[in-house]
Amino acid sequence: MNTRSMFLLLFCAYAIGSTSAPAASLQMVPLKASYESNLQVVVRSDVTADCIARYAKKLDSIGEGFKQDGNLDGVVAVRDEKKRCETEKTVPAESVPNILPAIAKARVEYQQATARAEIDKNKKILALADGYANSLEALKKQLTQQDKIEEATEVKQEIERLRASAEVTSAQFTLADLASKAPPTPTAPVKSTTPVPAAWAPSSAHTPKPAKLHRTVACRGINGAWAKTTMSIKAGDTVTITAKGAWKCTGNSKTCGPDGYEGTEISTSYSSGYSSGYAWGRHLSREAYGALVCKIGEEGTAMLVGKSLSFTSTEDGVLYLDSNVAPSGYARGGCSGTMAVDVEVLSNPDKKGD
């Protein structure tokens, strides 16, 4: 055999060997593809929008009842509430004095419906993960019985990755958190014998209770940015935000927590004069890439949250949350994962009605 033939034979043997994949990888491909496809359908479902649509229909029903009764104040109050809801796309969780009982009850029903929808969504995520894990366990057992130890070990590593994934841990945290909180109960509006502003009834004996929100925030892709919450903030409110979880931002093989990536962990795939081409153009250029950030109102200024943040708001508006990456474009193309975020807002009675 001449040298040229020998080289071709060796090249073909190498090419055939290099294209063969471990048995475990080949058998895991359809299982993983099915799981991730179904998972994305559940993760992308917007339970808040559905609940707001039902709340709007409830307001229509309440308004129609007031109209038939000839109750002008009721019709106007429902019209104003519907206009506010259409503008802000939120339903406040806090109890407001002087609000009509019918609207107060509808708000409570909305909060309860949202909580149920979040529970159902996260239960679906865990059910999908359990199904995938069971299939992987069966495959691992089969490969072990066939003495394919390396392939079985590969499957075991996928099971461990699945159990520690951001989607699974976030769903577990959300369900545990919701289970620990009693459902809200409708409360009658505060009555006062003295005229008070409609937005707030100050009293020396009144101790405001904080409004609370739990939200799972995704690190959104190319067409995503700023996740709008259902929490309305007023100037003077004390806002406390805490977060846990993990997400992966474009250009990184590792995930990061709410504090974002350390400087040495940021991808340097692009040489643009910045620490990372992917990190360029992020909301806060001097803060960690991938850190949790927030803003008040659609045109608000971004603020670093990280694992926790407490501040007194100087603005009115809805709370928005996001990862500290560029607002759009290629820099969001590789984003995945979620953070479990808790928000607590304590209203300042001295600022109400200013």
Task: Explain what this protein looks like in three dimensions.
- The strands form 2 sheets. The chain has a 4-stranded antiparallel beta sheet, with helices on one face.
- Helices cover 43% and strands 16% of the residues.
- The longest helix has 45 residues, at 101-145.
- The protein folds into 2 domains: 21-192, no CATH class; 206-354, Jelly Rolls (Sandwich), CATH 2.60.120.
- It has helices at residues 3-19, 23-43, 47-69, 72-88, 101-145, 149-163, 166-179; strands at 211-218, 227-233, 238-248, 292-296, 303-304, 308-312, 317-323, 336-346.
- The chain is of the alpha+beta class.
Any descriptors?
single chain, 354 residues, alpha+beta, Jelly Rolls, 2 domains, four-stranded antiparallel beta sheet, 43% helix, 16% strand, globular, disordered N terminus
Number of strands: 8
Measured as a percent range, the helix fraction is 40-55%
Low-confidence stretches: 3-21, 183-206, 267-276
Overall structural domain count: 2
The side-by-side strand order for the widest beta sheet comes to 1-8-3-6
| End-to-end C-alpha gap | 95 Å
Number of helices: 7
- What about the largest sheet? 4 strands, antiparallel
Share of residues in strands: 15-25%
- pLDDT averaged residue by residue: 76
Q: What string, H for helix and E for strand, traces the elements in order?
A: HHHHHHHEEEEEEEE
Report the C-alpha radius of gyration, rounded.
26 Å
| Class based on secondary structure composition and strand pairing | alpha+beta
Shape: globular
